[in-house]
Specification:
It contains 2 helices and 44 strands. By secondary structure, it is an all-beta fold.
């Protein structure tokens, strides 16, 4: 249900705790005791694990409070912060720092109110904002305010559809001016969370089709082009893209065994324009519960989901098995590319994340109350798959770069020059080079929280040896453009990315 890549190339995964035993035992006879659990009061199995991509190995983790439909963000020091959930987890904060033996540390009553289906966003000062949740029309921060209070946000109440909601897991994107783009249902605002005021309201996305849970479209902040789109005021042009969802009323129709076709449109909004307007495009196929991921090449991958229905138990049909790649800088009408898919349905409670070698790890799918593996239309799916985007094809091996070293090798400060030495087997002249920084996402429920991709401004490229090169680029200008933390650095040569090197920005 939830996945987060850490800077150790390990992935923390977890599911809810109140569905009964898992297939993974806790170590050394450890058991979770919970008198309020609705299924199993004493549970000696794990509902969380940490998986090493490099060694293809995992170890169980102990999580006490219920993480169902919770949220997450990685703090600047690399610790995964996890907020909210259900039942005894609804006001909990959990943290895990990557190390050989580290486990979850929990603070059950830390949040001011219940945060179930809320969204997290890392901020320029290293805090995390927690927005919304079921019947929670407010936001708060981690670390919390001195008085432990929350701040009302009327916008969330205005976008709440009676009996259907359609504003859970609101889409959040930190903009380079330091303000927060907030999208819920069909509407969006610019929020100054420092002064607690709404600065502007954007036009509603055309079509009156809800895009947030349970209608469950998905959203990305398009790559920030520090190489090309810096404006006169020193900021960069910013576009938000939102794809898929379900028609208004689709959730209610499922009670009559009617599964409405999913939404097939994407909208792009240049939020930095004086008079922004949505530019609409059609996807190759309708999709609800799709995951939108930023790839190292600055393309967008849309994967997972269904063609009919909405999020929820048994409420979707017609799994969409073919991923789509979207080229945001290609001409309109030629941006979508349908890719080869998998025969495994990945619908409600599935996830996808980008890992350091450029693959996309896809896992899960449990569209049932409790785990159900037989005699159902879409059985609970426990497997992981790795999806390889086209740039990983063997025919590109000769133009694939490999990073040798970076300077600095550990911490990059704002506006600092970054030097990367890399090798590439084929001749370089005439082939474009770019450096991209990818902030990994916390992915759950078709929402990839915190992800952002920066395309750095290159100063020069120098050939050192016949197949060895050095590229120098300017680091991000500010923490509003690149919040502090760990990023994956890729060299992209002729459209083919290297394996990532981790770089901490502060």
């Amino acid at each position: 249900m939830h996945m987060q890549l850490l800077h150790t190339d390990q992935i923390v995964m977890f599911d809810r705790t109140d569905f009964g035993p898992s297939n993974l035992s806790l170590p050394a006879g450890l058991c979770r005791i919970d008198p309020d659990d609705v299924v199993l009061k004493t549970d000696c199995t794990a509902h969380s694990l940490i998986y090493s991509v490099e060694s293809d190995s995992f170890r169980p983790l102990y999580v006490q409070t219920d993480t169902w439909c919770s949220s997450g963000a990685v703090l600047p020091n690399g610790t995964l912060l996890q907020t909210g959930g259900y039942n005894d987890g609804e006001r909990a904060v959990r943290m895990i720092t990557p190390c050989d033996f580290c486990d979850w540390f929990e603070m059950p009553g830390y949040l001011s109110v219940r945060r179930w289906y809320s969204t997290n966003q890392i901020l320029p000062d290293g805090r995390v904002i927690v927005v919304g949740g079921r019947r929670q029309f407010s936001y708060e921060f981690f670390p919390r305010a001195a008085d432990g209070s929350f701040i009302p946000l009327q916008f969330l109440q205005e976008t709440h559809d009676k009996n259907q909601e359609n504003n859970l897991y609101p889409f959040l994107h930190l903009l380079p001016d330091g303000n927060l783009f907030v999208f819920a249902n069909t509407r969006a605002i610019l929020l100054d969370y420092v002064q607690n005021r709404v600065l502007r309201e954007y036009p509603s996305i055309p079509g009156d089709e809800p895009r947030n849970y349970p209608s469950s479209g998905s959203s990305v902040l398009l790559p920030l082009r520090l190489d090309a789109s810096v404006r006169d005021d020193g900021l960069v042009d910013v576009e938000i893209m939102i794809c898929g969802g379900a028609p208004r009323g689709a959730f209610r129709l499922t009670a009559s065994n009617l599964y409405a076709p999913a939404v097939d449109t994407c909208g792009r909004l240049r939020v930095t324009d004086q008079d922004p307007r949505w530019a609409m495009e059609r996807m190759p196929t309708p999709r609800v519960m799709g995951d939108m991921l930023l790839l190292p090449t600055a393309d967008i991958l849309i994967i997972n989901g269904a063609g009919n229905g909405t999020s929820g138990w048994e409420l979707a049909r017609n799994p969409v098995l073919t991923p789509v790649q979207y080229g945001p800088y290609e001409p309109p009408g030629s941006r979508f590319r349908v890719l080869l898919g998998s025969p495994i349905p990945r619908m409600y409670h599935s996830c996808a994340i980008v890992v350091g070698d450029g693959r996309v790890l896809v896992g899960g799918s449990n569209p049932h109350v409790y785990y159900n593996f037989t005699n159902v239309m879409y059985p609970t799916e426990l497997s992981l798959e790795s999806f390889s985007p086209p740039y990983l094809a063997s025919r590109y091996a000769e133009v694939k770069p490999s990073i040798v070293s970076t300077a600095p090798s550990d911490f990059l400060t704002y506006r600092q020059l970054l030097t990367v030495d890399f090798n590439v087997p084929a001749t370089l002249p005439g082939c474009p080079i770019s450096l991209t920084l990818l902030y990994p996402s916390f992915t759950t429920h078709s929402l990839s929280m915190n992800q952002r991709l920066l395309v750095l401004k290159i100063i020069k490229v120098t050939q050192i040896l016949p197949f060895a090169y050095q590229v120098t680029a300017l680091g991000p200008p500010s923490p509003t453009v690149a919040p502090p933390g760990y990023y994956m650095l890729f060299v992209v040569h002729a459209g083919i990315p290297s394996r990532a090197a981790w770089l901490r920005i502060q």
